[in-house]
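Notes from the 1:1 (GR / supervisor)

We went over the backlog. Supervisor wanted to see one worked example end to end before approving the batch request, so GR pasted a single chain during the call. The sequence is below; no edits were made to it. Supervisor asked that the structure be written out right there so they could see what the output format looks like.
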Amino acid sequence: MARFAASLDGRTHSGAAPYPSAPSPSSSVDDSFHCPTCGAPLRIKNRFVKAVTCEFCHNVSLYDGVRLDPTGRTASLAKLQSPLYLDATGRLGDRPFRVTGRLVYEYDGGMWQEWFLDLGEGRVWLQEDEGRFTALNEGDRASAPPFEGIRPGDEITVGGHRVTVGEVGEATIVSAEGQLGHQILPGETIRYVDGTAGEDEVSIEYGERETEVFVGRPVPREAITIDPDPFA
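Structure output shown during the call:
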């Protein structure tokens, strides 16, 4: 499933910066909570976090910037091969990052995973699908057209982009861990529209609580540097 990504110089072909440069992954908000389900200590690591998985009981809570709201959902851990892992640090091009969360999606064509990266004063989703990486940046969600009626081959307008639709489908969240920038939960199904706009890839995810728009380009594997695991 195609997703949007950013070029490594941090700019799309139009010259707009899709994610900000950051000196180090340091956007922790230092907010300490306790898991609403088991009472374990829980610290929100990033001001962009919207959903949190407890590392002790694996229950998922939504975070609104003030409090944790338990969902009653438990996150199973799907093991897919990847050089990335939760809390890994490294560099995406010249930008230092820390992995704060992961989602695994299942659809008719198989599975893919998305890693939520803290870039300091910014964030980015790094999609991994059969060894192909794409850095995903959030677009204007208000520009997303209604899902109903969109078909492959259609042309739609999303955030000023004229998008040729290549794929329309559904996927289920089968695994989640860490802290995430979306209000989507394990077991939920999203509908998606993928397409292209010139050199950009554009994707829309229609979830149960919110619709997300992404735009960008693939990232070569050699541009992703991962620090050695200190606990390995």
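Supervisor's comment: Residues 85-226 form one domain.
Batch request approved.
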